[in-house]
Amino acid sequence: MSTLSKVFLFTFSFASWVFHTSAELQTFAHPLKSDGSLSFLVIGDWGRRGAYNQSRVAFQMGKVGEKLDIDFVVSTGDNFYDNGLVNVQDTAFLESFTNIYTAKSLQKQWYSVLGNHDYRGNAVAQLSPVLGEIDPRWLCLRSFIVNTELVEIFLVDTNPFVEEYFTETDGHKYDWRGILPQKSYISNLLKDLELALRESTAKWKIVVGHHAIRSVGYHGDTQELVTQLLPILQENNVDFYVNGHDHCLEHISDRESPIQFLTSGAGSKAWRGDTHEVNRRGLNFFYDGQGFMSVQLSQTEANIEFYDVFGNVLHRLTASKQLYSSI
Ligand SMILES: *[C@@H]1O[C@H](CO)[C@@H](O)[C@H](O)[C@H]1NC(C)=O
Ligand SMILES: [Zn+2]
Question: Can you list the residues of the chain whose pLDDT is less than 70?
Answer without folding.
Answer: 1-23, 323-327
